Amino acid sequence: MSLTLKPAPAAASGTPAAAAPAASRAAQLLRGTPAGVWIAAALLLFLVLAAVVPFLFLRQDPFEIDPANAFQAPNPAHLFGTDQNGRDVFSRVISGAGQSLLLGLAATAIGLILGGALGITAGVAGRRVDSLICRFVEILFAFPGLLLALIVIAVSGTGVVTAAIAVGIGSAPGYARMLRTQTLQVVASPYVETALALGRSRPHILWHTIVPNVARPLFVLVTLGIGQAIVWASSLSFLGLGAQPPAAEWGAMLADGRNYLQVAWWIAAFPGVFITLAALTTTVVGHHLQRRLEAEA
């Protein structure tokens, strides 16, 4: 994914004349947004609210065991049914949104920090360092991201924290490649040459010119990356390498319910649906933001 970057625009003056174009752009943005993007954004907002304020949606304790109500199909009392221990699946799915999204955010942040350090360094440090970093990243690209995460877990052990670190490392090569491309574009831009001509030091140019402009598309990268990180982290939990039962985490719940598909399909189905929703909504919103950013460039 490659985006042409421009210097950040000057702050608006705050006068009515300056506010009018801003209001016009906002109205144009609202009118030009497809209905599918609005639906994805609404679903994503629901997932975020479920993660941040789950008590707004919880009907029962997600960890309360009630063997007398085990394997109940979806009904008004239990919207998503109950699992093999009589726990309310809806409450567990809502409760799991926090851990699943937190895992996705943490893994994305780790991947972005590691990949950003490699990519920006490669873009500004000269050909020799750039060549070394590119070769290192190409070696990492020889392994699929999820396989790289599995290798990290094999070395470091299982657990939620290890899973987040592993997924972050697995996604770092992709961020490194994209941010290197952005950095090279910024370094070759006229305003960096102007800063050099004015006698600005290289550290000053790096932190005040290059990094702010490279950071411009990061929100898009993060939005796209979170969905992928959630799927990878859920996959690790499904394999028993991330969150462990009885944790209310979507991947762990999916693994917990796979043994009961023939008698209680809902135990695994609803966590799987929410994993899919998280991936689809972040992808749709991220691609829309990317198109908007490219149109404004």
UniProtKB/TrEMBL annotation:
Organism: Arthrobacter jiangjiafuii
BP GO annotations: transmembrane transport
Record SUPFAM superfamilies: MetI-like
Annotated transmembrane regions: 36-58, 101-126, 146-170, 218-243, 263-285
Subcellular location: Cell membrane
ABC transmembrane type-1 domain: residues covered: 97-286
Record lineage: Bacteria, Bacillati, Actinomycetota, Actinomycetes, Micrococcales
Family: Belongs to the binding-protein-dependent transport system permease family.
InterPro entries: BP-dependent_transpt_permease, MetI-like, MetI-like_sf
Record's GO cellular component terms: plasma membrane
CDD domains, A to Z: TM_PBP2
Membrane topology annotation: Multi-pass membrane protein
Keywords: Cell membrane, Membrane, Transmembrane, Transmembrane helix, Transport
Superkingdom of the source species: Bacteria
Protein name, entry field: ABC transporter permease
